[in-house]
Amino acid sequence: MKSYYIKLNNNISVANIWIDGGTYLDKKNKKGINQILCSLLSRGCRNYDNYEFSDLLDSYGAELNFEAYEDGFSICLKSLSEYFDKLFPLLNLLLEEPNLYEKEFIKCKNQSLNNVIKAKENTFNIAFNNFKKILYQEHPYSNNCMGDEESIKLIKYHDIFNVYDSLKKRDKYLLTNNAKFNFLNLKDIKATVSDNEQYKIKSKLFIKNNYIEHHSNSKQTIIIIGSQTCPYKSKDSLYLKILESYLSYGMSSLLFKVFRENNGLTYDSGVFYPLRKFKAPFLIYLSVSEIYASLTLKLLLSIWNDLLTKRVNKNELSLAKLKLKSSFLHSYRTCEDIIYRKVRLLSLSIDPYYDEKVEYLLEDIDSDQILSVSNNYLAHPCLSVSGSEKICKDLKKIWKKRY
Question: For residue 321, what are the CA distances in angstroms to 29, 178, 354?
Answer without folding.
Answer: 44, 34, 16
